[in-house]
Structure formats: C-alpha cells, structure tokens
Amino acid sequence: MIAEKYPASLNLINWRLDYIKIILWLLIVSYVAWFSYASFRYHDLFLTNGFDFGIFDYMVWNNLHGNFFSGLFIGEKSHLSLHFQLILLPLTPIYLIWPDAKALLFIQSLVLGLGALPIYWLAESRLNRWMGVGFAAVYLLFPALQGANLTEFHTVPLAAGFLAYAYWYLRCSNFKMLLLFSLLAAACQEDVLIIVGMMGFYLYLTQKDFRGIILGLLGFGGFLILSLLIIPSFASHRELHFALLRYKTLGGSIPNILTTFGTRPDFVWHFVMSEPDRVRY
Known about the structure:
The chain is mainly alpha-helical. It has helices at about 20-45, 50-65, 90, 95, 100-115, 115-125, 130-140, 145-150, 155-170, 175-185, 190-205, 210-235, 255-265, 265-275, 275-280. It contains 15 helices and no strands.
C-alpha cells in the first residue's frame, strides 16, 4: 500500500479565504458547542448519575489531591480493580483550571468533535475536499457517536477520536504519531488494546512494516495481561475481571465460557433470551 500524502489542508492556519476549511471548522465547532451545551443541561437537570459519571468526577478530584485512582466510591481500594483508564491522569490538571464535572463533559465533546479532522483528511486524500467535508459531517452526525457523547462521561468514547488519528497516521506511514495516538486510545480502557493490536497487524499486512507485528502483539498481549492478571490483582474480593462475572452462568473462566458457547448453543440462547433487559442490551 502506498502511504497517503499529507493534504495541503493540514496547514490549519491559512490566511487565504478557504470556504471548504471554514465549513469544516464550522461543523466541528458547532458539534463541540452543541453537545457540550446539551451535556451541561443534562447535568443541570439531574439527569446524570453517580454510576458512572460520579465515579469519574471522584477519581479525577482524588488524582488531583494525590489519592490516585481511589476506589472507595465503588467499595474497592483502587478503581484499577475495574478498569485501566490511565487517560484520567493527563485529564486531571484540567481541574486546576475548571474544578467542575462539566469540564469532563466538555473534554469528551472536544475530543470527539476533533475526530472529524482525520476523517476529513482521509477522504480528501483519496477523493476530494468536498467529499472530505461530507465524510466529516457523516462522522459528526453518526447516532452512535452522539449517543455516547450524551451518555454522561466515559473514557471509552474518547478512544474514537484518538483511533481516527492513529489510523490516519498509519496510512501516512508516520509510526511515531501512530504510536502516540495508539497509546492515548489504549489509555482510555484496557479493551481498546484489542483494536490497537489489530491496527498493528494491519500495518504489517499493508505496508510490510515489522513494527506492526510488535504493535499487534503488544496490543493483544497487553489486553490479556491487564484483564487476566493485573486488574484482578487490584480487586479485594474476586480473582476474575469483573466483566467476566456477568457470564458466570456460562462458566467460571474464559475457556469454560467459550466451551459453553461451542457445545451448548441452546443453553446460551435461553440464557440471553430469558430476560428482556438482556435482549435490549
């Protein structure tokens, strides 16, 4: 695969009147402004919850005061017993400037909104600038993106913006920037490492860059180590990742759960369909 060329529009500061660039930035600014406002209104109307928004607010405030990843809010010594969300560390200084939970809502809208830039660059490099604006608009109008943006604050949606940049730099054969944004995405939550791993192998398959194999192995290996060893080690009352407890009816370990899926599909079907909440989920 031939690496993408950096489009001229990467020069974001250009005094020449550029209507396409103006439209693109109007879309991004409008998205960030509207979804920040909507998220703030949800919060002001008491439509946000302690689980999970309060957990993140509590953790960032405690990080700022040296009690890193405190888990007292959830009855654990450390929040790392649930998820590895190290992205909260670079977000912590924001509370020095704006010590309000709304700061997290704004950051979420900002990161997701700026994710439209690499979408635009990708479409522009392969099609044309107007198609770039069109694909950026489709990204910003995507219901799943907007739904995640309005569901309080979570670290996982931030990965959507970071992964868009990571893929762009993969296409540009810029491994350093690919690695930077892959690390930012992986820091959002441990399961994002799976996507990072797939991108690494994709890098090798499309560009024969052996660093892709290393990134792929680190992605999948990191996910398994965090999920099966490190995260359970922080838990005080269990030996498995808490998410696996949701499937304890299907087996007490990953091999047992997979065996149940393969040998007792009727039981799995009945388990899923037996409760309306599971079907809706």
